[in-house]
Every structure is written in structure tokens, then in C-alpha cells.
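Translate sequence into C-alpha cells.
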Amino acid sequence: GELIPWPQLGENAVAGIDVYAIRSPIPEAVVVPSPVAATDERQVLQRVVRARTWRELVNIVDDPSHRVVFQDIGSPNGEVTGIRWSGRHHADVVMAGHGAAVVGLRTSFLLGWQASQNAVDLPVVRLGGKHLGAIVADVGAGPVHFVYALPGSVWRRALGLIGVLLWLAAWLIERRNWSGHRHAARCKLSSP
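Result follows.
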């Protein structure tokens, strides 16, 4: 596969924006062949633009949340033998082999993804500037379980918004009831 320019966008083209496509599709799950850590967004973008195959693309590993300290993983000795989706946001990647590796899943990297292997939390990383990955100590130690859960801050905001909406609804109901009482009081005063 090679990196090719997207067909001409005509009137919809935006100056300064290039769109590319990789001819060969990225596998649904993969043991990253030769992971290389990128230190910032600029480096990720430069490497993505230079990538010509899906292998070169998924080799680009970074951590946008800056929680992972990268160490040289070397060339992993493993392969994906299966993937089981038990829900829209739950996947188990089964592998064979041994040694440390980065395991990738062809789904969008978002804060909130978690990974574990044998109930041990794994560092979650981004592959190719877009896809989800996890760093494992040994690919042969068991399946990697990926699960997505909304980050706590999103839950707090959602609950706060619900609280504000409930308060607003209660205030509107009370206001309507209060104006109804005033109208009823005026009617009683003016009747003969």
C-alpha cells in the first residue's frame, strides 16, 4: 500500500489541508511490528504524512495524555490470533507469542479507553495519530481486554447539567403555580 492523495475536492477544497488514504486497510487488531514513540503532535503528524503502509502507520506510538513513559520495546515476537467484541465498547484481543509489545485495536483513541491483561491495568496509547493501543509486558500472558468508559469529568458535567435542569424545571413549576394563585386571588376579590 502507498499513501495517495484523496480525489480532488473541487469547490469544497480547503487551502492548506491535504487528505490522504492508505490503500491497504489496517487490521482490526495487530501486534505493532516496530513501535516508535513520538513525543508530540508535530512529530506524530510528520510521521503520519510520511507513512506509506498500514505497518508504518501503526508503528507511530504516542500518548496524548502524557501518562506513559516510553521504553524501547524492540521487535515483538507475537501475533493476533483472534478478537472478540462483547459489546460496542468491549473487546478482547487474543495473541500468541512472547515478549513485550504494543497491541493495537482499529478503533478511535479517546480518553476513557482502558486496557488490562489478567486483571492488571495496562498503559493505553495512540497509534498512527488515531487508533487505540496498549503496551503489554508479554503478549503470551493472556488476552488484552479493552473497555471504554466515559471519563469521570464527563460524568460530573452530565450530572451537574441534570441538576441544573431539574432546578430550572422546579422553578418554572413553582412560578406557574404562584402566578395561578395570584390570578385566583384576584378573581375572588373582584367577584360580587
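Note: Residues 152-190 form the longest helix (39 residues).
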